[in-house]
What does this fold into?
Amino acid sequence: MRKHGHIKGLALSTLVSALCLAGTAGATVTEEDLLNDQDTTGDVVTNGMGLQGQRYSPLDAINPDTVKKMHPVWAFSFGGEKQRGQESQPMVKDGVMYVTASYSRVFAIDVKTGDELWQYDARLPDGIMPCCDVINRGVALYDDLVIFGTLDAKLVALNKDTGKTVWKKTVADYKAGYSITAAPTVIKGKVITGISGGEFGVVGKVVAYDAKTGKIAWMRPTVEGHMGYVYEDGKEIENGISGGEAGKTWPGDLWKTGGAAPWLTQTYDPDTDLLFVGTGNPAPWNSHMRPGDNLFSSSRLALDPDDGKIVWHFQTTPHDGWDYDGVNELISFDYEENGKTVKAAGTADRNGYFYVLNRENGEFIRGFPFVDKITWSTGLDENGRPIYNEASRPGDPSAGEDGNKGNTVVAAPAFLGGKNWMPMSYSKDTGLFYVPSNEWQMDIWNEPIAYKQGAAYLGAGFTIHPTNEDYIGVLRAMDPITGKEVWRYTNYAPLWGGTMNTAGNLVFFGTPEGYLKALDAKTGELKYEFNTGSGIVGTPITWEMDGEQYVAVASGWGGAVPLWGGEVAKRVKHLNQGGSIWAFKVPKD
Ligand code: CA
Ligand code: CA
It folds into this structure.
């Protein structure tokens, strides 16, 4: 028996070393890896560098003293004749980087050498309708799968070693204006995705699939009145989990094409077991057609990750008339007050206000502006509801002389938002949020519109203008307790990439001018910059390998600004496109 056991032991250790020799073949991403991502510095396996989305790394080898020695290790081209915006956050696991690129492409790269391991190109149909560039924001990793969403609204799971398709699901109909650009999230074995398409009158929804098999698990619409479902073996087992009363906060039939697209990656808080989802504008933009709050548009929703039930909701812009999508990430953080721990969450909205909510129940704790100019409202009431400035709401076209155009108003922020998609980060060390924001305003007016499947459904026209001559972008360090801006770093072009911060007291981010920059997290002082050759609209990550700290960021100018930016687009039209991913480190010496 003893001998037999010994042989068994030998066989096991031989197997283990064989797996090690095979490099990455044995390692998969577990539930544990996802839950612990923030603290495990050898890998980055979640979008957000942790499910709560704080984008904070405990690594400190790269700090204000050493960062001047940081230099590129390799750069990898995404290739292709078509480039456009590169908004991906890369992932790193066991020596392999997984990064998406424009036009629904995925690359696996050896992080030591920068060599390509495999490439996957989604075959996109001609009729895709991405509103805001052909971007993709990253993958989800689970088990031996690399999962991502495509511009034709499919969810695709690839084998991590070969790049071959394991399963593929149609989440929604691209011909009706649906697409997917956000990275999915995996919670408790389910891969969860939202959809884009708020500018086409889609019905927003969040859908969960069994991550291993791709079988649908639940579906939760984000427009009040639509029913949600739980599935077993592809069949509805629980019919009609109510999403509220049809027509209650919407007039007539408008809820049927109400938008509220949840088009960004969700965050998850294991503490409360809640999935936090942001929803986009109500459709159409012309608010005079849809009196009422138009739930659950421009809101944050807390969902039960097991069945998609809405546990609480907080609407940042009820009856939105300015395209103030409420999609922005809700980042969990704790703070002490009167000897008690407050389980809070922070979010910076397109509408220009920063909100601190109780993440257990969605109650409003406080809110404050994080941009210099807000005209559409004069403040927030004690429940966090905006106090509207009706003079800043674009006019009703049917009230005009010919019925074709309502009054034009000047509104700030512009519809591209005080903050748009680009994720902010939170530091446990400084207690500050690092918010990529922009100072701009717009002329906006309403026009008549009727819903037609697969056509733009705005009922509005607009031109965006910079508010200041010398800068649009402002990276702000915001204190969520006092509501004060602690420091700011201004940038000529609008900021369109995310931030990441470290225990090394640095905040990393990129600019459309091409620079990867590192600022002192306490003071905002510039400590490092390197030009990557095209604009950065992606989000940096950091990890350690062989005892050295690395940083990586995607480079490639594009996104919504050149397409929708009006006068701002003219200001940045000289910026060149690209498509690459850069890796940096500080050598051990
Ligand atoms: Ca990790
Ligand atoms: Ca929108």
Q: What stands out?
A: The mean pLDDT is 94.
